[in-house]
Design a protein that fits this description.
alpha/beta, Rossmann fold, 7-stranded parallel sheet, 6-stranded parallel sheet, 43% helix
């Protein structure tokens, strides 16, 4: 009875929420260039007839950039195990769509996931007829799950994780949400401690499996690799023979760019700040903020050798390149962990063998960050002065090698998670 009451309330509120959220969503799409990317697919509107769509494919749903990268990792591993398998990668944002299309995986149809309105979900399922749907760290939308259950399409959730705060909130409303989560046919969790949470939320225990973290697992995909074009750019910033150490700020958020760049400058006047904003469309704001802090900004998207290398800062305002930029770094500072909460993924830098520095706010990457800190594989400064000191220490080659090796040992605990997920679902 509670489920039907909750579903009725959801159906009443969903259109209102859409109307309220639509203007902000439209502005974001304009800013991120999403309006020219078949965005009508979010509404279940497709420009071509369905004749040549990959009917019966495995559908992987990824909301934004981080989830899209994980979805690509999962698909690559899945295709190694089942070369003939067909895939559709459905994203929820323009930036996620750009990452998915930019990967150019043969035989993978990239589309937008439908909004959770019954008519839009029905058109999506009728057009593609998925063999199964895999949600990557995604929300379990009620109408999608109901429509899939009606059509006997299994839905799985992989890399499932709830923060302690979210888990407590869901548990308070467990009686209302159990029927929704109970429709999941498989939930791959990262740690044994997560099993009880998902069981309490209505997932049958036999449908839960501990696989390790898809996000942390290096997988069988390509490791971060140096690119000649990146090395050539960096050579133009040299102020003395032998080049400069690169301190890369990864996936930064509003206000962090000048804050971290100033700490880099304080740590070493010889170090080159390389800033990779989480959202490339913020380039104008990032440029202005860094210029006010006294840096000469060079944008990757409009690259020109710096007029004054000593005061220059390179901003990577292109999508999908962070992995390989980390291979050129001497130190990586993780964004969204100092002036915002949640943190960003440190794993690519660790895979590149680079020492990592995280701020005090890495809530989205627990317990990994605590494990890294306890193992001596990650510095955790709390303020700008401590960050500068941590950068100076990390630039010492011997200390950097030790820190990177300890961090790699922590990641090894999750090695094979991607393969385990594919083996279970495939």
């Amino acid at each position: 009875m509670r489920f039907f009451l909750g579903l009725t309330l959801y159906r009443l509120l969903l259109p209102l929420l859409f109307v309220v959220a639509f203007p902000g969503w439209l502005r974001r799409m304009l800013r991120r260039g999403g309006l020219g990317t078949r965005l009508g697919e979010r509404l279940g509107c497709y420009p071509e007839p369905p004749d040549f769509e990959p009917s019966g494919a495995v559908h992987v749903h990824a909301v934004s950039v981080g989830e899209a990268l994980l979805a690509l990792k999962l698909i690559r591993e899945w295709r190694l195990a089942r070369p003939a398998a067909r895939f559709v990668l459905a994203t929820g944002t323009a930036t996620g769509h750009a990452v998915a299309t930019g990967a150019k995986l043969d035989g993978v149809r990239v589309t937008y996931a439908p909004l959770d309105f019954p008519s839009m979900v029905r058109r999506y399922l009728k057009r593609f007829a998925p063999s199964q749907i895999v949600l990557v760290e995604g929300e379990a939308w009620p109408h999608l799950l109901l429509a899939c259950r009606k059509r006997s399409i299994p839905v799985a959730l992989v890399n499932a994780r709830l923060s302690p705060r979210s888990a407590a909130r869901y548990r308070r409303f467990a009686a209302w949400v159990r029927p929704v989560f109970g429709m999941l046919r498989a939930v791959a969790v990262q740690d044994a401690a997560d099993v009880a949470v998902w069981r309490d939320l209505g997932v049958a225990e036999e449908n839960i499996r501990v696989t390790g973290s898809l996000k942390i697992d290096p997988g069988s995909g390509p490791a971060p690799a140096r690119r000649p074009e990146f090395a050539e750019m960096l050579e133009n910033f040299a102020t003395s023979p032998g080049g400069r150490p690169v301190v890369l700020a990864a996936s930064t958020h509003d206000g962090e760019e000048p804050w971290i760049a100033e700490a880099i400058r304080s740590a070493s006047s010889h170090a080159l700040p390389v800033i990779v904003p989480r959202h490339a469309e913020r380039r104008a704001q990032v440029t202005a903020d860094l210029a006010r802090a006294g840096f000469g900004v060079v944008l990757r998207s409009a690259y020109q050798p710096p007029a004054d290398p000593a005061r220059a800062c390179l901003v990577i305002d292109t999508t999908g390149e962070l992995r390989d930029w980390t291979a050129h770094a001497s130190v990586v500072v993780i964004g969204k962990s100092f002036l915002a909460t949640g943190g960003q993924n440190p794993c690519e830098a660790i895979q590149a063998g680079v020492p990592v520095i995280c701020g005090p706010h890495m809530e989205n990457f627990e317990p990994l960050t605590t494990q890294l800190t306890e193992a001596g594989g990650c510095a955790r400064p709390a303020n700008k002065d401590e960050l500068a000191a941590a950068i100076r220490e990390a630039l010492d080659p011997a200390r950097a090698a030790t820190t990177a090796a300890r961090a790699a040992a922590v990641l090894d605990r999750h090695h094979g998670a991607t393969r385990r997920i594919v083996g279970w679902l495939g």
